[in-house]
Amino acid sequence: MQSLYQTRPYFRQEFEISDGKLKVLQEAPFLKESIEIPFEEIAGNKLIPREEFNRNLVTFSTLLFVVLCAKLYFQIFGDKQDYGVTLFVLCLFCFFSFLVYFTRKKSLVLVASTKRVEFFEESPDKATVHTFIQELQAQSKKYLLYKYAKMDERIPLEEQLEQVNWLRDRNVITPQEHQQLAALYSKEYSLSIPEAGKA
User: Record keywords: Transmembrane included (predicted)?
Assistant: First the structure.
């Protein structure tokens, strides 16, 4: 069992890998939600990088840009040649533009079949988040292989091959692994039928 604890202003979330599922607890003011996502819904889903910018800084930078454009227009077509204020507004605009860029928050979005989960890259730190995601992917693959790729002579061959096909279609196994499993299943079933006939 492994867990990951993340926080952002007025929001916190905790992830826990447990028994074939990912448990997610999210808390914000006046909101508390607990989610359980089975590994079947996570399998093969790629993480989507996402960047979030501070909306207040973006708004203020946009206003400064509008003011700067107006100042430049009047500077060019007007009578006054006052470059001091225009230069000051330009400096402010550059400063807040850099601030918008460097305060952006990166995250990785996992879109499951029924839920959407977002991992914050900066909380607690990038290495810890990526280590947790790798562990989630490894445990998910191990669990799904044990559940769907384990040979069982009581289940018809066609049904087991369908399960192996599902693992391939969801990118849990590679096409090469799929071919090896399909060949192994066919071989084992062809060997077990004559033995059953002799009994």
Answer: yes
- Give residue-wise pLDDT tens across range 74-119: 777 766 666 777 788 788 888 878 877 777 888 888 877 677 888 9
What digits encode the pLDDT tens for the residues 113-123? Answer: 677 888 999 89
Cβ burial, residue 172 (10 Å; 0-12/13-18/19+): buried
**Contact status, residue 30 vs residue 37, Cβ threshold 8 Å:** no
Per DSSP, 79 falls in state S
User: How many Å apart are CA 32 and CA 26, to the nearest integer?
Assistant: 6
Amino acid in position 72: L
- pLDDT tier for residue 194 given thresholds of 50, 70 and 90: very low
- Contacts (Cβ under 8 Å, ≥6 apart) of 173: 145, 149, 164, 167, 181
Most distant pair of Cα atoms in the chain: their distance? 107
Q: What is the value of pTM for the model shown?
A: 0.70
Helix, strand, coil tally for the chain in percent (to 5): 55, 25, 20
The two tokens of residue 52 are 């979030």
Token match 């890259």: residue? 121
Distance CA 1, CA 13 (A): 17
| Helix and strand element counts for the chain (H, E) | 6, 7
